[in-house]
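[job 4417] fold queue: 2 targets
>>> target A
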Amino acid sequence: MPTIAAFTATLLVLVHSSPVHAAGCEKDTDCKGDRICENSACVSPAAAAPPTETAPASTEATEDSPTPETNPNADTAAPTVPKDWWKQASREAEAPVLQAIFNSMPKPIIRKSGGKLVYQRAVPLVVADIHDTTARWGGKAQIGVHFLGISKVHTTTTLEDITVETGGIPYCPINCARITDIQLTDNTIALFYDGEIKQWAGKVSDNLAGYTRKLGKQYRTMCSIPTLYSHAPSNSWMDPEEVKKVNESAVTEIKRYCGID
């Protein structure tokens, strides 16, 4: 009999504890239907508190919405201010911009047997200060002459591209205060000034200065820049539209730098 009594007591405890467990829950699977477990109680999803919105942990940009850190144009230098063209900082900022335009000049090619031969070409060298060059005119011998400069000669006798250290190379000075016009003819950019160049850019005679090889007073007020020198044979080909695009871009940039309409 004691055994039967103990079994009955145990059964009563289990029977009476069962409803308590059914009234509460520990996980969603303890609830019937689509109800979920919230605070140990089964409730419908609509009654559950909405989750709190949080900002995404990652700020990685997508292709459709680039951030300043990933935007390919973010590292592009800000355009110089035309009124500050004469300042050293403006000249140093403009030189690589203009050089990049000249460097985009296509290379001459010759198509041969289904392929093509690519040849070199020389383009102008842009310097932030012609006073830092070794040219006789507008170089270190000319005190106080500080202008952005574009080389008139782009290659040496051994067909190597010139550098700032290459001696005897004449440069056209970009003196925005004196430029009256900029013209493009074929592959030559001509800068026209309001007076003779040697009056403000050096006292070297015209022929040694290198900015003109023509006789006549009118040529003393202009400086011409060939935009390329081809090392390829005469039967080579360059895309004329691409060449034209580079030439026009260079003229447009010089005018923007100087504030010329």
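>>> target B
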Amino acid sequence: MLGRTGEGDETRMLSQRRPSGGSGEAGAARPSGTGDAHPSGTGDAHPSGEAGAAHPSGTGAAHPSGEAGAARPSGGSGTLARELFDGLPARYDLLAEVLSFGQNRRWRRAMVSGLLGLDRAPARILDVATGTAGVALMLAERSGATVAGLDITEQMLRRGKEQVARRGKASRINLVAGRAEQLPFPDHCFDALTFTYLLRYVDDPAATLRELSRVVRPGGAVANLEFAVPANPVWRLSWNGYTRLVLPTAGFLTGGPEWAAVGRFLGPSISEHYRRYPIDWTVDAWREAGIEDVRVRRMSLGGGLIMWGRKGNG
């Protein structure tokens, strides 16, 4: 089912039948062998949340972009997030808006609305890749829930705690360091879960989705925000120009060399992710993780992607 939900937006209710091939960016091939091993190891989790426009949000190494000019930090699991964002939390919110075409707040509101549309009164919500706690704060303000926010970057969490205290939400929001691939929580302990800008930054997206689903109770709601590549060729050409040329320049002007590196990294990393993991593959992975009635909403002419669904009872 396809319906218009706003300028440049569209929503699909995807059937329970497994798609026969990938979609997403034109010409994307289905990945071969994403792996089924349950994530192991401990450590920190990943950033995102407050405007996580460019902020990686899982933990795990990013997939190489394979495109010239992609400034990809070196290192293994968990290193990418720290190298990109450890020293940048003070200007993160501003840069996130620049790097998301000024759409990040709108996308986050849509994700939270999708979640609360499935469960209007959750008692406990987990926000994975919480960054500086922007989504966690929005969840607390729009529901009566207590919120746990998890992230890999200590500097982001410190700024997040400052913002939580300033907004008077410290009694309802608890921020902790942890990894998306191995959450420090027991099974079925949350009524709902959000994660933002995460899947491009983990080694095994399918296994990470299973781990996220593990901590949600049966019947609980799950919602996600990611960048996407416009499907329309004209908008995709404009998107490529923006992400390859404008973002590095805007990053440098507003945040210096560090944010210029983020700008150079972002576009190629998004393109590579959807070549490896098209949207239909991702929907499949949600279902295989036990999440049902998955909906997909493309926003801002395809530059943003919202997904939401409900944990099955099986």
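[job 4417] complete. Note on B: The CA atoms of residues 88 and 258 lie 8 Å apart.
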